Amino acid sequence: MTPSRFHPASAPDYLPPAQMKSLQLDRLRSVVERAFDNVELFRTRLAERGLTPADIRGLEDISRLPFTVKTDLRDTYPFGLFASPMQEVVRLHASSGTTGKPIVVAYTQQDVDVWTNVMVRSLASCGITHGDIVQNAYGYGLFTGGLGAHYGAEALGATVVPISGGNTERQIMLMKDFKVTAICCTPSYFIHLLERAGELGVDVRELPLKAGVFGAEPWTESMRRHIEAAGGIKAYDIYGLSEIIGPGVAVECWAQNGLHVFEDHFYPEIVDPETGAPLPEGSEGELVITTLSKRAMPMIRYRTRDITSLVPETCPCGRTLRRMRRIGRRSDDMIILRGINVFPSQIEGALLAVEGTLPHYQIVLTREKGLDQMEVQVEVTPEVFSDQIGALEKLHDKLTHSLDHTLGLRVAVRLVKPQTIQRSEGKAKRVIDRRNLG
Amino acid sequence: MKIHQLSLFLENQPGQMIEPCRLLAGAGIDIRSLSLADTRQFGILRAIVSDWKVAAELLESKGYVVNVTEVVAIEVEDRPGGLAELMGLFENSGINIEYMYAFPFGRGNRAVMIFRFDQPDAALERLQAAGINVVGGVDVYNRVQ
Prior knowledge:
The complex is a heterodimer of chains A (438) and B (145).
Chain A: H1 17-38, H2 40-48, H3 70-75, E1 89-94, E2 104-108, H4 109-125, E3 133-136, H5 144-156, E4 159-161, H6 168-177, E5 182-185, H7 187-199, E6 211-214, H8 221-231, E7 234-241, E8 246-251, E9 259-261, E10 266-271, E11 285-291, E12 302-308, E13 310-311, E14 323-324, E15 329-330, E16 335-337, E17 340-342, H9 344-355, E18 361-368, E19 371-379, H10 389-407, E20 412-416, E21 431-433
Parallel strand pairs in A: 3-4, 3-5, 5-6, 6-7, 18-21, 19-20
Antiparallel strand pairs in A: 1-2, 7-8, 8-9, 9-14, 10-11, 11-12, 12-15, 13-14, 16-17, 18-19
Chain B: E1 3-11, H1 18-26, E2 31-38, E3 42-49, H2 52-61, E4 66-77, H3 82-88, E5 97-107, E6 110-117, H4 120-129, E7 134-135, H5 137-142
């Protein structure tokens, strides 16, 4: 898979910035008008601010528009934010929704075509092309990951193996027998797959697999190094969310240094997560996205809760699409412990520094006598286990020290039996917060 | 003349011992001897069993982390001073005994004890030079008569 191979669908990736801006402005005005005409909530909010779509004269006027937040989707469940009649809606997806009602998103045929287009461009950006055999281990169904990657890979002309998530042994067998060259799944599932392959005596590095397109959860540079070394592949980060379209909002290229946002369809802004004020280019804050061409369900200034920044420099790959730094954390994932901000990615870094590979772990938050406590539970692996208490106590101390050093606060470490931390074949559940139960 | 010992990671909580014991029982594997080392959070179950390979595979397949260590089984005179004499062999040798425990059976008037040395080969050399009987694996797995 050579980086220079060009797919015709990728043409907008290379638009001159002035042309891109003019395209964005045209599309912004039209989507604002569409939402104003068809979505009551948006119309009311514009009216409250004394605005009409005609007030959008330049791209910078976007910051005058009201935000859309996740609860807006819940509050208008199921169809309240649709801008198209159901006759024009060809697909509904929904989030699993851990609490209360799920979030529903809708697509017209044109929306599905746009989604397919950005997924073709995403996979092409990861060096995948026709002739590649793509194992799509994202879940098929209401979750957008499976179908999004599927349509994109097919339209690209690659061979799709629509295996969906789970049944890891079969995944490994087919990967080997079908000579799969690329895989799409969550990074934590791929790590699980590598582990299982190792147990079955399959060395993934020796298989034809060359690329992995990993998304649907934040992951770290150290996880990438581990995946690339243990899998013998290039690991690309893909970003997306159902509220915007699904996977294919932004993706890495061969430079693996930031994700190109498909900004001809998804307009990115960075705002202060607390105040919502727009931040200057290059600063870190919450990513806000406006869907410039969405028809069934336009999202105007949607608060993603993901923390990132936009990279001002041009990319060596030649794409003119702006890049965002990889999402290491979500404002939702941030743990505030005794006034200190802690992200699971920092904990992963600390564990990796000690053990070399990332063990299964879980963060448990409790409140004892009014004081928040954090316990990091780490599964004991065969690599670190010993018959001697001293060796395990030393491991325990090293982990504690590494966490103290990284986080700047005292954290309890508990070594636990293997397979006792709940596995998920999709997104990993890393934080158990019991602080509000007592 | 080293013997294979299995070590198992357990959490220090009620009920942790029962599953490994039942698993071994179900496979017809006898536990010849065991010792339990504990800390506040976790413990290590060390055991000599009748078939260590089958036992290790079985436990691993059930998700346990199993460590196989080579230990030495030594006959010790079962009388006052028996163990002290044996220990004398290692005095000033720099050889460290990490831990030790006994078999629930002996040979005549001699007890059989398991030693985990930090330098098992150096320890074996000293034992052999002193004519101390080191019990072989087959004897231990099949039970010393």
